[in-house]
Each structure stands twice: as structure tokens, then as C-alpha cells.
Amino acid sequence: MTGLTTDAFGRVSCGDPRATGRVTRLFLVAAAVTSLGLGQLPQAHAEDLIDDRDRINSELADSRDDLETFSAELNEAAAALDESKSKLATARKTLAQAQRQRNRAQAKDKQLAADLKAARARLSQAKADVAANQKALDAEAKVIGASVRETHQQNTELMGIAAFVTDAEISDVNQAMQWSTTIFNATQAQMDRLQALHAKLQNAQRAQTKAEQEVAADRAAAAKQLEATREAEATADRAAATVATLVKSHSAAEDAAAEKVAAEKEKQAILEKESRQVEARIAERVAEQKAKAKAQREAKARQEAAAKAREEADRAEEAAKQAARRRAADAKAKADEAQRAAKAAQRATEQERSAPAVEAPEPATDQGGGWSAPVNGPVTSQFGQRLHPVLKIWKLHDGMDYGAACGTPIVAPRDGVVTESYFNAGYGNRLIVDHGSVDGKFMTTSYNHATHYVVSPGQRVRRGQVLGQVGNTGYSTGCHLHLMTWADGQLVNPADYF
């Protein structure tokens, strides 16, 4: 079969138009694969592909908790993309194997064609040898025939030699030789030469027969190999078509995944915006609480200063009385003046004592102690950055998830005041509770994705009091509680407290 060739422009061509079409299709597929960044066919064995698939599946299983951070649509797109990668890798391996088989078949086809060509050349040479030997034998027979005729005309003993110039076979010649020993002895040299030429002709004929058999065998092998080559090429064509189809499918899966990633990022932006707004409101309340605490401290300081002033006044009064007694002998004018001063000081003191006390607002209490679990269920996902195991995008999981069935009670982890309760597209039904100062920090918690809440903003709640029920509202992949925590208005890891 004719092999592939390239012209002056590097274009590939083939003697067989059908093969040229197949090669063209293969190169078009290869170009399509290369344009998508998939041009390098994998050399790994099927076992390697299975190992890769198992590794990815293992990573997905290990990251099941992390995947709760991402939307179900994104995870489905990632699964489709992963499956597409696996199928495409397998198809590319199949294509590579088919191409190698096709190349081996074409090489064997060329080899058999060369063998057939060589066999035909040997056959041609054998035929030429037969013709040459036949010609030499004919010439020798002609010489002997002339000698026989001359002997016959002279009535010699060579009449029997006529048997050698007939169309008899070599067996007949041998018989004739036995019949006419005299004739044979007379022409022994001529007979030896004739017999040698006849033997040489027979060898050439046998060589021709063998060459014809080799040509027939090589022709049959070439025909069979041509069929195998065409089948290998057809297999390669089918594999190439499969790769081309999967390339399109993989491209579609990539586009779908990219679309879901964009949607996920958009949702994340919405959640981040909401978080910034909540943090701003919490920071405002923290500032108010700090201002209130400062006012309370200042009022207390004023009360302590007033008390200290009264004590000093009492001491001064007592000192004045003692001084008056010590200076009893002093002039009456000085005594009267001291007495008036003492009375004036006494009146001032009485006025100070009778003045109403300044009422200070209730200070923020530092409850101390630990935090109770907000729901009866295991922690299924921790706070922190998450990397999607397939799509390789990062996302902040801004809270701690508790796995619990929908309807499970959510309770207050410690005393506090409900500050906000509303619905958000991302967090679903959410509740925010201000716990005041805890160990020197103003603490705030948020409960998200609930079915509903049974408390309202402004209501004071106690540790263990039911706030609502676990739900699946907002951007949620299943029933769970998403708990968020702020310390002094800064988002922190709930695991540091719970």
C-alpha cells in the first residue's frame, strides 16, 4: 500500500484517494484538539487513567465537607467536567493506540509490498533463466540433430541419436540411451553437454515455480494485510471521530463550568457585600456600646469624685472645729469668723448631700464563662478558605456549619439581645444577636438558613432559649445551621469560642 508523502509545502498526501481523505480527517481532528490545548495525546496506559480517575474521586470524597461551601449547581458542573476529562483522556488513549496500530499496519503493508516486488523480480529473473536455458538447450539439440542426420546419411551407428532431437522427455532420452549403447558411446561428449543443459533448464523451471508460489503467497498476504490496514485506518477514523465529539462535549462542559464559576463568584460578591454591610452595622452598635460604657465609667468617676469631695469637706469641717477649740482663747472676731466659715461650709455640704444623684445607664455586663452549642448536631464544615477540588477556585467559608435536620431547634449560646432578623438571598433567614462584652470584647453572633425564628429584634434572650429552627433557605445545599461570629465588629472563627 502506498505510504504518506509530503509535498514542497509540507502538505500530506497519499496515493490512495480514500486514504488521503482519512489522513486529512485525522489531521483536521488533530488540529482541533491542538486548538483546544489537547493536542498532546497521553502516553499513559489504561491503568494510569483509572488511577487518575480514582485519585480525583478520592479527592472529591475527602473534600465533601468543603463542597458544602459551594452551590449544588457548581458542584454538578464540576462533576460533569471531571467526567468529561476522564472520557476524553480514555478516548485520546484509544485514538493513540488506534493510530499506532494503523501506523504498524501501514508499515507492514509497505514491507509486504516490498516483499511482493522482490518476489516478482525473482520470478522475472527465473523466467529469464528458463528462457535462456531453453534457448541454449534448443541450440545444442540443433547441433546434435545435424550430427545425427549426417551419421544417418553415412549409415553410421549414430542413427539412434535421433531420439534426442525429438520432443521426448529426459526419461525417454535415458531409455534411448540404454537402447543404443553404441550410439551413446560414440557421442558421449555431446550427450553429457545436452544432459547438463537439460538439468539446468529443469532447475530454472523449478526456481520459476518456486518464485511463482512466493509471488502468489506474497500477493495473498498483501491482500490480507491490506484488509487489516483498512480496518486499522477505519478504527483510527472512528477513534478520531470520538475524540472530536468528546472535544466538543468537553468544551461545552468547560463553558458550563465557567458559567457556574461566574455565577458562584457573583453569589459570593453578594454575600461579601452583605457581610460588609452587617459588619458596618455591628461596628456602629459596638461603637455605641463602647460610648455607653465610657459614659458609665465617667459617671462613676464623677460619683467617686463627689464622694471624695464630701469626705474632704467633712475632714475640713472637723479640722475647723478642732482649730476653733484650740483657738478658744483667740479673739472673738476670729472665732466668730471661723464659726461663720464653718457654718457656711456646713451649709454647702448639706446642699451637696441633698442634691439628686446622677442616674447612669446600665453598664454592659461581662458574663464570662464559655459558650453553649447553638444546635444539637456535629460540625460539618469549619471556618476558612475553601479550594474547589476540581475547578480550583477559592472561596471564604465565613462561618461554621452544624449538620442538623430541618426543624431542629436553634438555641442562644449565651445571654444577649436580638438586634436584627431578616431574609437575605444568600444567607436565607438570618438572625443577629448582640451578647455585649465577653472577656473584654463585644461579641455578636449570626444564625443563617433557618426555616423561621421565634424571637424579634429588641428582645432579650437567655442562654439555652430557643431562637428558631434549622432550615435550608438562601444559598444552601441542605438543612444545616451556618453560625457566624464577630469580636469587636471583626469576623472571627467561631471555633475559637464554640
Question: Overview of this structure, please?
Answer:
There is one protein chain. This protein is α+β, with helices and mostly antiparallel strands and 498 residues long. It has 8 helices and 15 strands. The protein has helices spanning 17-35, 46-62, 64-67, 72-153, 170-179, 181-186, 188-326, 332-354; strands at 4-6, 12-14, 379-381, 384-387, 394-397, 400-403, 409-411, 416-424, 428-438, 441-450, 452-453, 460-461, 466-469, 480-487, 490-492. Strands 3, 6, 8, 9, 10, 12, 14 and 15 form an 8-stranded antiparallel sheet that branches. It has a 3-stranded antiparallel sheet with strand order 7-13-11, with no helix packed on it. The chain has a two-stranded antiparallel sheet with strand order 1-2. Residues 1-45, 155-159 and 355-366 have low confidence and may be disordered.
Give the CA-CA distance, first to last residue.
78 Å
Runs in which pLDDT lies below 50 for 5 or more consecutive residues are 1-45, 155-159, 355-366
Main β-sheet description: 8 strands, antiparallel
Tell me, rounded to a whole number, the average pLDDT.
Answer: 75
Specify Rg, calculated over alpha carbons. Answer: 56 Å
In terms of structural class, how would the helical and strand content be classed?
Answer: alpha+beta
Number of strands: 15
Q: Which percent range fits the helix content?
A: 55-70%
Shape, please? rod-shaped
Count the DSSP helices: 8
Q: Strand-and-helix sequence, N→C?
A: EEHHHHHHHHEEEEEEEEEEEEE
Proportion of residues in β-strands = 5-15%
